[in-house]
Amino acid sequence: MTFAHVNRRVHLYFGLALLPWLLMYGVSSIPFAHAQYFDALDAAKKLPLWTMRMDRTVEDVPPREESDAPTMRAFGASLMRQAGLEGTSFGVYRQSSNQINVYAYSFRRSTQLKYFVDTKRLTVEDRRFRWDHFFTGMHARGGFEDERLLVRSWSAIVDLVCVVMILWIVSGLYMW
User: Fold this and answer.
1) Of 81, 77, 109, nearest in space to 91 by CA
2) How high is the mean pLDDT of the chain?
3) Cβ-proximal residues to 42 (8 Å cutoff; 6+ apart), any chain
4) Least confident of 12-16, 67-71, 130-134
5) CA-CA distance, 89 to 21, in Å (whole number)?
6) Lowest-pLDDT range, 21-35, 110-124, 138-152?
7) What tens digit of pLDDT does each residue of 24-46 get?
């Protein structure tokens, strides 16, 4: 068996293995490219996208504006605990000098927390499920910040898919 023969087989099986991923990334690219269309469809339903779950005062000391990412992440985790949202992936950033946003997300649902520094007010809103958000969430999801096995497994599989895509391209270039 020659190297060219092995290369053809590797290219074939990598292509077959990548087919579900290429399909998922292709389908999930449609809502990215046509977000206005899906938003217009949703607006026609006249249903609110976000539903208020909680609005209360929280006595917590926010990090300084120039604080580092671990400090912001710890503050976001504190807000999540106070809102009863532990055990989910999240991201935190400072919207302005007066507002800190935390987005908690999973494949099926998203929640946003907004902490207003001057009034010490925390609002928690849940986003209604939409298929276009589900697909774009699958497309853009990644990272190893979350310690849960399923989330880390998804991230590791995406990394593996990226490596296989590169090898698939290289084997195709070799055949060419």
Assistant:
1) 77
2) 88
3) 49, 130
4) 67-71
5) 22
6) 138-152
7) 889 989 998 999 999 998 889 99
83, exposed or middle or buried, with CB in 10 Å at 0-12, 13-18, 19+? buried
Domains and CATH numbers, the chain: 3-42+131-175 (no CATH), 50-127 (3.30.160)
Give the pair of three-digit tokens for residue 168.
């698939």
On whether the pTM is more than 0.85, the answer is no
Whether residue 101 contacts residue 92, with contact meaning beta carbons closer than 8 Å, is answered with yes
Q: Please report where in the chains the tokens 């935190």 appear, as a residue.
A: 92
Residues 13 and 18: their CA atoms lie apart, in Å, by: 8
Residue 103 neighbours by CB distance under 10 Å:
15
Secondary structure of the chain in the HEC alphabet?
A: CCHHHHHHHHHHHHHHHHHHHHHHHHHHHHHHHCHHHHHHHHHHCCCCCEEEEEEEECCCCCCCCCCCHHHHHHHHHHHHHHHCCCCCEEEEEEEECCEEEEEEECCCCEEEEEEECCCCEEEEEEECCCHHHHHHHHHHCCCCCCCCHHHHHHHHHHHHHHHHHHHHHHHHHHHC
